[in-house]
């Protein structure tokens, strides 16, 4: 079968992939989506109760506002999918998408000089650089496509579950009950999920958003005297938030304005700014303690042993702040959700799970809310020698502007850096990428790009012990400033200096400049 040649290929049809397709539409890209639907994790990794963790106005495209953007309720996953479909339809993006088309292999066909260059030229060199092998659900035959530039948008979540390793003969195979990962649970309809949980002794490993939401669904399925309690095994504590208000003040005042982020480190800030940042560290700590005091007062964290030892700022700086469902602690008070704190190793026995200290939990169902292995997804398709260049020894991906790996030619990665609003983070980088591909500006040298990524990684490392997640929440405005400057835009986007300093930034501030 002949190789089909195009300028740009995009792998993944989630939020990032659709944003990339819209911004690169003048090049008529080909978008490969492995399933029959756009939406990514919102389509394939959502429970029936899954909701957005931010208000609508903080999760929208700059040129496509929500119809009810002032509605303060958090939209459901279905509302987000409807919004994404409306966006893709309005901008005629779906014509670029090849559904049920899974990328199984990528080959490098560029020259060795391009792979080892110190300077970047045009990202569209008028000759193919990558070949992409695609398998459809209708055929086992691999169809090959050739591209000058490839954008990877497969994301960090979904597809490949992160499964704990167990001692020999102490894994799920000896357990007489059922073991599922949250990715399996997401595939169940309401009747199937209720049947899985109702009247069962359920043990959930995890304490992030997916685990918390699942515990509530489990509790709701076990109402009444016949219902069993769901036990959450919490290994690493994180701060949870009931809503976006702290002591009556809007949450954005603490971290999402230019003034509030001025307290935090940022790349390229110079000696005086570094000195000032050091002097302001007590104020930074005070902000974190104000939020911690509110959460400890508002929620029964100490009662259930769920108050973290680390500052709130560390969870915010690593994008691990989770919004609690309204009835989480009320179900715990009724005895429908039990908490077991354990940092020890654990394994299965035929009747449940056992911990290193000898304690056991009886179980009919064990749910692993243990996350995903997004990097393994990349390593499965990226060829050598580039596979070894995907991440540094620290485990972090070196991405200039959160998009370009300086060591991998003619390829971009969108959706691998996080902030409070991942949609905005993806969209502005896609705008930057479209102008870069269109030769409106040029990339710095490879050495300078690596130097910039190292500076950002070092800030993350100093800010939070969970730095490997590549989160820019505490300096997101500065990150956008630098992107705007490279695009030739003004970095200050508000109409007055007061608004510039004290009002929150969101995607609407980054509408196209005419």
UniProtKB/TrEMBL annotation:
Enzyme Commission number: 1.-.-.-
Cofactor requirement: FAD
Superkingdom as given in the UniProt entry: Eukaryota
Enzyme class: oxidoreductase
Single GO term (MF): N,N-dimethylaniline monooxygenase activity
Keyword NADP: yes
InterPro entries hit by this protein: FAD/NAD-bd_sf, Flavin_amine_oxidase, Flavin_mOase, Flavin_mOase-like, FMO-like
Family according to the record: Belongs to the FMO family.
Name used for this protein in its record: Flavin-containing monooxygenase
Gene: LOC105173835
């Amino acid at each position: 079968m002949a190789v089909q040649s195009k300028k740009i290929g995009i792998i993944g049809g989630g939020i990032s992939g659709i944003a990339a397709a819209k911004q690169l539409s003048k090049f008529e890209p080909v978008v490969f989506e492995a399933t029959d639907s756009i939406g990514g994790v919102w389509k394939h990794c959502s429970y029936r109760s899954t909701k957005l963790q931010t208000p609508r106005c903080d999760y929208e495209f700059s040129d496509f506002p929500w119809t009810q953007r002032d509605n303060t309720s958090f939209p459901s996953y279905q509302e987000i999918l409807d919004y994404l479909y409306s966006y893709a339809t309005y901008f005629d993006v779906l014509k670029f998408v090849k559904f049920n088309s899974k990328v199984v292999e990528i080959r490098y066909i560029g020259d060795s000089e391009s792979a080892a260059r110190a300077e970047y030229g045009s990202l569209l060199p008028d000759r193919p650089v990558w070949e992409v092998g695609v398998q459809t659900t209708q055929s086992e035959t691999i169809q090959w496509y050739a591209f000058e530039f490839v954008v990877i948008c497969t994301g960090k979540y979904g597809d490949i579950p992160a499964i704990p390793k167990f001692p020999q003969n102490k894994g799920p195979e000896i357990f007489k009950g059922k073991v599922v990962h949250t990715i399996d649970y997401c595939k169940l309809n309401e009747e199937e999920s209720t049947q899985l949980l109702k009247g069962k002794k359920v043990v959930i490993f995890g304490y992030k958003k997916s685990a918390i939401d699942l515990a509530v669904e489990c509790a709701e399925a076990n109402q009444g005297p016949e219902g069993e309690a769901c036990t959450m095994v919490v290994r690493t504590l994180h701060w949870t938030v009931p809503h976006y208000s702290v002591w009556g003040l809007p949450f954005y005042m603490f971290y999402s304005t230019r003034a509030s982020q001025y307290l935090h480190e940022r790349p390229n800030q110079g000696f005086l700014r570094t000195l000032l940042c050091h002097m302001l560290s007590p104020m930074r700590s005070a902000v974190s303690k104000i939020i911690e005091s509110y959460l400890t007062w508002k929620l029964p964290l100490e009662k259930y042993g769920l108050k973290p030892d680390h500052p709130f700022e560390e969870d915010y700086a690593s994008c691990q702040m989770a919004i609690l469902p309204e009835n989480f602690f009320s179900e715990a008070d009724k005895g429908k959700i039990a908490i077991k704190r354990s940092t020890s190793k654990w394994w299965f026995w035929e009747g449940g799970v056992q911990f290193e200290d000898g304690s056991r939990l009886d179980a009919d169902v064990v749910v692993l809310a243990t996350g995903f292995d997004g990097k393994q997804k990349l390593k499965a398709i990226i060829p050598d020698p580039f596979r070894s260049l995907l991440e540094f020894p620290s485990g972090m991906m070196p991405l200039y502007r959160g998009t370009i790996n300086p060591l991998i030619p003619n390829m971009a990665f969108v959706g691998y850096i996080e902030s409070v609003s991942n949609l905005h983070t993806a969209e502005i980088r896609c705008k930057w990428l479209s102008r870069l591909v269109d030769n409106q500006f040029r990339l710095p040298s490879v050495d300078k790009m690596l130097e910039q990524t190292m500076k950002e990684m070092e800030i993350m490392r100093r800010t939070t012990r969970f730095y490997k997640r590549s989160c820019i929440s505490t300096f997101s405005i500065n990150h956008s400033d630098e992107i705007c400057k490279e695009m030739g835009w003004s970095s200050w986007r508000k109409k007055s200096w007061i608004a510039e300093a004290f009002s929150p930034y969101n995607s609407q501030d980054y509408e196209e400049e005419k």
